[in-house]
Sequence to fold (335 residues):
Amino acid sequence: MNDMKHSFMKKFHRSSLTAIISVAVMLGVITCVIASAPKPVSEPADPGLSDSGITRIEVPSNEIDTYARPALLAEEEPVTIQSPVFATPETADSSDDEPESEPAVESELPAETAAPETTAPETAAPETTAAPEPETEVIAPAPEPEETTAAVVTVSPEPITELYADKYKVKGYKIVKPGFEVSEYEIKLAATVIQLEVMGSGSELDAFEDTTEKYIEMLSVAEVIRNRVDSEKFPDTVEEVILQKVGNVPQFSPRETLEYYRQFVTKGAMAAAREALVVGVMVKPSNLCYFCATSIKAQFEEWNAAALVPDGKGSYVQWDGHLTTFYAGHINSDK
Fold:
């Protein structure tokens, strides 16, 4: 009985020892396995990438390692970042001082999946309606006045209270109303011819010694214009007579400067033009149609011999003025 008990106890102790040894060996093996397992590598902090808690898992693959960021996982092509780049284990420059990285082993950890992108619901801005513009009253435009043609002034607007012919004691004149109409513009044009032909630019009638003789001379120039308008051999209006040319020769020498010198016409020249062309004051016969400066009368008679009326004495019918000589022409019979 004692032998059996002793034998049983011996076997029990042997089995217990074997079990303890087996447990110790197993613990040692587990410890070695745990020690040799790869440790997770933490990603260096990136100021521009603040995905806390995301780690990189080294995978034994030749493919480009992807960083577990939702934005990059969704892109098909790599994006070049122009801001300072922080090197990752794949792109960082190797250095002799840095130890070689441990070979990556396949991890049984489940692959992380990109978090689904959340899009903030678009909220339409409330529509704003512009305040209605105040209604303005539309006023219909007033009808334009019908265009009317200004009537030609045929007589002087200034009433003639006293004739200059009387004021300056002209004797023997007669009044014969002209058979044509004359405008105020034509009166000014004729007055300019009178001013330049027998008075001089800007000279007043009262500046001459013999005002009577000078005014007769002024009336005679205006009468030449009148007689030409009445004649069939000359144009039919005062303006056309004054501006007429025979060939290239103006019939009145101041023709090219009349528009400029109109501003210098004096009251005496205007009075002579008005009295001869509107009132009808006549101091010479109606066939008086030429004149020239007395200083060149010989040349004038030579140039115009065919148009002048001979006096039967070897000369021509003429009247001498202060500085001007007037001639009768072959136009009308003497009245």
Summary: The domain at 164-285 is CATH 1.10.10.2520 (Arc Repressor Mutant, subunit A).
